[in-house]
Amino acid sequence: MNVFLPLVVDQALAAAVRAPSPQNTQPWRFVVDGPRIEVWLDRDRVLPVADPAGREARLSCGAAVCNLVLTLRVNGVRSRVRIAPEAADRDLLALVSIEGNTRPSTLDRRLAEAVYRRHTNRRPLSDRAVPPSARALLRSAALGEGGHLDFLDGSGRYAQVTALVRRAETEQATDADFRAETARWTGRAAECPDGVPTDAFGPPADIPGVVSLRASHENRSIPPRPFEQDPVLAAVLTRDQGVAADVRGGMIMERVLLTATAEGLATSFLSQPFEARSTRAQLLAAFRDLGHVHTLLRVGYGLPTRMIARRPAAEVTTVRSAPEVPAL
Predict the structure, then answer these.
(1) Within a domain: residue 127?
(2) pTM above 0.85, yes or no
(3) Which of 24, 118, 264, 312 makes a 20 to 30 Å CA pair with 64?
(4) pLDDT tens by residue, 138-151
(5) Residues linked to residue 202 through DSSP beta bridges, in sequence order
(6) What is the 8-class DSSP label of residue 225?
(7) Are 94 and 61 in contact (CB under 8 A)?
(8) How, if at all, do strands 232-238 and 292-300 pair?
(9) How far apart are CA 153 and CA 197, in angstroms?
(10) Which neighbouring-strand residues pair with 318?
(11) Residues 110 and 164 in one domain
């Protein structure tokens, strides 16, 4: 056995838990069993109001898989991913098998470094345009994971989708159950290992924009500021849908987010229309000609914001047997 492999696996798991998740719930668990790393959905951390089917939680687990595999690769370890490997157990989302050695690329190293800088930016972005070259890199990142990235301003869907975002935000703002669930996971102290702390919130908008960021993520202790009026929005899609597609969608999403970070771009999510009952079906229908839409991203240039904490990887990992390279 490679004596350094346990350390490499520890590093990969530390990267995995840096993945984004709704309200920073971190809905994953990992099991290390020799040359295999299992990625499980943690049902206790699925949001029952906002995400009753666990769709967003599976996206988050897929993002964790992306970080895990990428970090293995930059440490010279080749792996293979099987998504939803057991139809009988829908909570076993991925199986990462260590298969030997590999040589990482320069791009692999850039993206792995971005894992520890990527964060959700809930603050105003500048009016600086996202250039065609950066858009092409983000599309290529999605394509490289088997998905598609659609920029809404070039597809004719912008007005329809932003209207759905505003309607969903209004519905959620008046939904007592949703507001209670959000309150349980937000407004936490900066050192809290899960949930979203108040100092990661953005300021209130002094002029309403074409889309709304979550009102529940406003820090009203700081002065209102203008937000960009026409933010760049992009949709992450796969051709298929279902449990496996959700996990793959999360891997695509994370590759796009890491690429954006490496290019100096800020990102955040517009999850409201996926979560609100009155808008979910219309949002899916709006992208039906392209495939199945998994998430909406806001992309642009902005000042860095603080990264929020995560639970230690050891807290969410069970080791059945030490990591090892399988005999050939």
Answers:
(1) no
(2) yes
(3) 264
(4) 999 999 999 999 99
(5) 218
(6) B
(7) yes
(8) antiparallel
(9) 32
(10) 31
(11) no
Q: Which residue type sits at 204?
A: P
Contacts of 9 (CB under 8 A, 6+ apart): 32, 37, 72, 98, 323
How far is the first Cα of the chain from the last one, in angstroms, to the nearest whole number?
12
pLDDT at 1: 43
DSSP 184-239: HHEEE-TT-SSSEEGGGSBPPBSS--SS---GGGB-TTS--BPPPSS-EEEEEEES
Give the pair of three-digit tokens for residue 49: 């109001």
State the DSSP code for 16. H
Mean of all residue pLDDT scores within the chain: 93
Indicate whether 305 belongs to any domain: no
Q: Which domain holds residue 25?
A: 5-117+310-321
| β-sheet bridge partners, residue 32 | 37, 319
Output the domain CATH number for residue 157: 3.40.109.10
Q: Name the amino acid, one letter, at 55.
A: R
User: Around Cβ 137, how many Cβ atoms within 10 Å?
Assistant: 17
Q: Is 290 helix (H, G, I), strand (E, B) or coil?
A: coil
Question: In 48-157, which residue ranges form alpha helices assigned H by DSSP?
Answer: 55-74, 106-114, 132-144
The token duo for 246 is 């959700």
Mean pLDDT of 200-207: 85
Residue 203 contacts residue 225 (beta carbons within 8 Å): yes
Total domains, the chain: 2
How far CA 185 is from CA of 100, 198, 317, in Å, comes to 40, 11, 22
Place of tokens 């949703």: 178
Enclosing H/E stretch for 102: none
Q: Is the pLDDT of residue 260 over 50?
A: yes
Q: pLDDT tens across 211-233, in order? A: 867 877 888 888 888 888 889 99
Same domain, residue pair 292 and 314: no
* Bridge partners (DSSP) listed for residue 150: 235
Q: How far apart are CA 120 and CA 25, in angstroms?
A: 14
What 3-state DSSP class applies to 257?
helix
Same domain membership, residue 156 and residue 100: no
Does residue 80 carry a pLDDT above 90?
Answer: yes
- Report the interhelical angle of 243-262 vs 55-74 (nearest 10°): 50
Q: How far apart (Å, rounded) are the C-alpha atoms in residues 173 and 154? A: 30
The contacts of residue 179 (CB under 8 Å, 6+ apart) are 172, 173, 216
